[in-house]
Amino acid sequence: MRLGTVRTAGGEVAAVERDGAWLALGVPAGVTLRDVLTRGAGEVRRLAGAATAEIPGAVPTAPLRPGKIVAIGLNYLDHIREAGMDKPERPLVFAKFPSSVIGPEDAIVVDAALTSRVDWEVELTAVIGAPLRDASPEEALAGVAGYTVANDVSARDLQFGDGQWVRGKSLDTFCPLGPVVVTPDEIPDPQGLRLWTVVNGETVQDSSTSQMLFGVAELLSFCSRSFTLEPGDVVLTGTPWGCGEFMDPRRSLRPGDVVEVGVEGIGTLRNPVTGRE
Q: For residue 163, what is the DSSP state?
């Protein structure tokens, strides 16, 4: 199933995408995918299976507004090599604020008064569908409602200047999500997916989730040992080589750019870049 949230004249509402059309799940306007996930996997399947009515004028937005955005740093072997850093002994966990979330075609806004080194990071993102606490890797993977694509947009000057990552990763518009959440029956193995980034038509990241140092199941299990993962939370699982910060010369996003990030089996998330007015 390909699930999401669409914007309509009556407000945002959870929906299922089928053959390029958005179909109503039979929930009232204002009920988003995060709300539906809290009802359990069985109810999600029931609603999606019964959906037949197309939603007129549906415009896809961020699939969900997460309760928590958990992110992982330095989790791809090729990215670790390009950054010239040592392999972490355990997952490097940080957070992005939910207020940073935007959807497909929404603008990434670069505030020149705050940052001049804005970078892209394509990331396979796990969407949590069941409460996870002290979960084994097998239990953790079974608790995934689906997968989506994220762009972990990063203000590198703030990230490295602050000495911690939250502010530089959490500026408004710095977490594009989408275009859909694809359920695990369509992605049985999250460790064999191609992922990529294209900036202004040029491919700058092109790798595979097989390059992860810690796989999705291990990451979720590790996180659940420290804090509860709840339905509607998301976990960004790291980015591969090709970040602009580590190019020679360094590259950064500027107003007028267009960045597209994608993951095999899910789709492409496209966002223009603008300046703050």
A: S
The token pair at 256 is: 């007028």
Q: What is the pLDDT of residues 116-125, one digit of tens each?
A: 999 999 999 9
Residue reference for tokens 């491919």? 203
Residues linked to residue 270 through DSSP beta bridges, in sequence order: 260
What is the 8-class DSSP label of residue 10? Answer: T
Task: Check if the beta carbon of residue 181 is closer than 8 Å to that of residue 206.
Answer: no
Concatenated DSSP letters of 72-123:
EES-BHHHHHHHT-PPPSS-EEEEE-GGGEE-TTPPEEE-TTT-S-EE--EE
pLDDT score of 191 more than 90: yes
Give 64-78 pLDDT, tens digit per residue: 999 999 999 999 998
- For 223-237, write each residue's pLDDT tens digit: 999 999 999 999 999
Report yes or no: 91 and 126 within 8 Å, Cβ to Cβ: no
* CB contact at 8 A, 176 and 199: no
